[in-house]
Amino acid sequence: MVAKLLEVKNLQTYFYTEEGVVKAVDGVDFEIYPGETLGIVGESGCGKSVTSLSIMRLVESPPGRIEAGEIIFRGKDLTKISEKEMRKIRGNDISMIFQEPMTSLNPVYTVGNQIMEAIMLHKSVDKKEARRQAIEMLQKVGIPLPEQRVDEYPHQLSGGMRQRVMIAMALSCDPQLLIADEPTTALDVTIQAQILELMNSLKESYGMAIMMITHDLGVIAEVSDRVAVMYAGKVVEYSNVYPLFEDPKHPYTWGLMNSIPKLDKDVDRLEAIPGSVPSPLNFPEGCKFNTRCPLAEEKCYDQEPPLEDTGEGHLVRCWRYRDLEEIKKRGERIYEDRGVLD
Amino acid sequence: MADNLLEVRNLKKYFPVKSEIFKRTVAQVKAVDDISFSVEEGETLGLVGESGCGKSTTGRTILRLLKATAGDVVFEGKRVMELDAKEMRLLRRDMQIIFQDPYASLNPRMTVADIVGEPLVIHKLVTSKEEKYSKVKEILENVGMGAEYMNRYPHEFSGGQRQRIGVARALAVDPKLIIADEPVSALDVSVQAQVINLLQDLQKEYGLTYLFIAHDLSVVKHISDRVAVMYLGKIVELTDKKELFKNPMHPYTQSLLSAIPEADPKKKKDRIILKGDVPSPVNPPSGCRFHPRCPEAFEPCPEVEPEFKEYGDGHLAACHLLNN
Predict the structure, then answer these.
(1) What percentage of residues in chain A have a pLDDT greater than 70?
(2) Which residues form the signal peptide (chain B) (predicted)?
């Protein structure tokens, strides 16, 4: 049995705003084993980014606060340790890359300086050695002419190159966990393909685990070993990647998969999920998906379903997943076109 | 065979790059560089490409929101570039646009009724306030929104609802052609499908013609009848969508198709990973613009620009490989 690298238990991160309490993350559980990739997929506002910021302890406080739960990284609960200890872990054991590389790089320092800063903060090396390592990292992430690029500023690089620099910086201290928050969303598809390939090969050579946060089911299918589907601050489905795509058990996951057009299959009409994500200030009672779910019945409005194991580690948070199973067997669609939506 | 509603002939749009002090033109961004295509009545032509390929500029130049550098746009037999202001205003009723960003394209100080009703007033299609409101109500119902939203402001709506308002505005004047410029790319996945379905329903109901501009190939494949692929200001391939996805001829199209991550973990793609970034359109590569990144480039590619011509049954492409 391999020890878990990271275990998140009942994480709750709330934001206290003037309009009320935003329960951005409301009871999230998952785990990551060494060397594996956990994909977290969900739409805007589902709490996927706040989950990652909570793990890094980067939630701005106030207004945000980790209300409850544990984040156990290699046996240590990150919610309980001091800021000083956390600083040793952040950027060293756990690194993070973000969606928009331009806003996460400092425009007034050369990329070399920024990578060297990370190296010198966590390793006891002198400036010369740090620079050598920075150049080596730039080369590893496939930046041409690294000796020259190391002295350039972020604005001199293209979007894809900037994301490579971010990755170089994140990997410069050999992290055991890399959190990638929508790392390819701002990039064109051909550049996205380059970056995903790079991340895959680096994952193998470094043996690190990756937590990949994205809204793109294609990216999820491609890189993940396991997947957590999030909706309105909760994990609604959690499974290995193959069974998830073959046999989605939650109506939301099912709807997401059928609402995207496929390259290899023609359909006349997409199965659109009606309405939109409810405001986090105003989540419904019971199951949070009940405002959009075609299967919702009385129980769904009264009680929140638990995350139930349907066998073989395929977890789903739905009262009616067995009924969905039947509908799928009959080959029917569940999302009727109602014409008037929202 | 249906008639061409829109014909674009050798369209060019260059933007000058000016020097900082004397504002002299020192270079030109060739955003759209000599492209030709036509759109039949009632069809959807998808225009696809990566950022900076000139697809949005093409849409805007057709509508004369940008002044073309050269070339012709013919709409229902009328040469759009030669119309005077009055004639152009009349034509704008027939050609409408839907924008990408539903947050930036709606005036935050106007109510939904005023946003959707404004084109009606401008084109003098309504004579009284009452008439405007009843017309707006009807249009909103057609895009799946109730009349109760009429007096609300854009900030009260979600992204998907705002995009519906944008669609309603375009629809208000009963246009023939709608240029949809990345209409779903700012929306959440589950809401994208709603708007795509809506656009398809409206097309059936009103016999609309779409020029659908997007970077997402799977969305373009779903909604289009034919697809044009753009790269650095040029159309590199244009054909029926089934043919394009089954038999892509241009190496760029092939790599673009192979680069899309598909929502199926069992599929392991043989990916053609392109090297480097899209070059700057200020100084595009000589010959074929794709040659520095093309995995199959050979002698003529850096020298001679390939001709955009037909390779059987309406399948057009511009690549030297195809002449071998």
Answers:
(1) 98
(2) none
Closest to B65 (Cα-Cα) out of B173, B181, B236, B207 = B181
Please give the pLDDT value at position B282: 84
ipTM attached to this prediction: 0.85
Closest-CA residue of A relative to B143 is A340
Mean pLDDT of B67-77: 94
Place A165 in a pLDDT band, splitting at 50, 70 and 90. very high
**Pairwise CB contact (< 8 Å): A260 & B218:** yes
A174, A198, A220 - which closes a domain: A174
Identify the domain boundary among A152, A174, A196: A174
Instruction: Quote the CA–CA distance of A101 and A112 in Å, as a whole number.
Output: 15
Question: Among B194, B245, B261, whose Cβ lies nearest the Cβ of A218?
Answer: B261
**Which tens digits make up the pLDDT trace of B133-142?**
999 999 998 8
Residue whose token pair is 């309406």: B314
Which residues in A lie closer than 8 A to residue B50 (C-beta atoms)? 188-190
> Do B158 and A342 lie within an 8 Å CB cutoff?
yes
For B4-94+175-323, the fitting CATH number among 2.120.10.30, 3.20.20.100, 3.40.800.20, 3.40.50.300 is 3.40.50.300
**How confident is the prediction for chain A on average, in pLDDT?**
90
Q: Best interface-test mutation with A: which of B141, B163, B191 has the largest number of A CBs within 10 A?
A: B191
* pLDDT at residue B1 is higher than 70: no
Question: Å from B189 to nearest chain A CA?
Answer: 7
A271 part of a folded domain: yes
Which range of residues forms the domain containing residue A169? 94-174
Name the least confident of A189-193, B165-169, B222-226.
A189-193
DSSP class of residue B169 equals H
Asked if the structure places residue A190 within a domain, the reply is no
Domain boundaries, chain B: 4-94+175-323
| Pairwise CB contact (< 8 Å): A272 & B197 | yes
Q: pLDDT (tens digit, 9 = 90+) per residue, A270-295?
A: 888 988 888 888 889 999 999 999 99
Q: For an interface test with B, which of A222, A244, A245, A293 has the most B Cβ atoms less than 10 Å from its Cβ?
A: A222
- Asked if A194 lies within 8 A of B274 by C-beta distance, the reply is yes
Q: Which percentage of chain B shows pLDDT scores above 70?
A: 99
Q: What is the pLDDT, as a whole number, of residue A204?
A: 87
Instruction: Specify the DSSP element, H or E, that contains A324.
Output: helix A321-329
Contact B194 A158 (CB under 8 A): no
Cβ B49 vs Cβ B259: under 8 Å = no
For residue A284, whether the previous peptide bond is cis, meaning omega lies within 30 degrees of 0, is: no
A263 with B263: Cβ contact below 8 A: no
Other beta carbons within 10 angstroms of residue B118's beta carbon come to: 16
From A40, A49, A27, select the one nearest A239 (Cα to Cα).
Answer: A40
pTM for this model (two decimals): 0.89
Question: Among partner residues A160, A190, A342, which is closest to B160 by beta-carbon distance?
Answer: A342
DSSP assignments along B13-59, one per residue? EEEEEEPTTT--EEEEEEEEEEEEEEEETT-EEEEE--TTSSHHHHH
Minimal C-alpha gap between A88 and chain B (Å): 36
In contact, A176 and A208? CB cutoff 8 Å: yes
A29 Cα to chain B: minimum distance (Å)? 23
Structure confidence at residue A186 (pLDDT): 81
CA distance B22 to chain A (A): 25
Distance from the Cα of B80 to chain A's closest Cα (Å) equals 33
The listed range with the strongest mean pLDDT (A333-337, B107-111, B187-191, B262-266) is B107-111
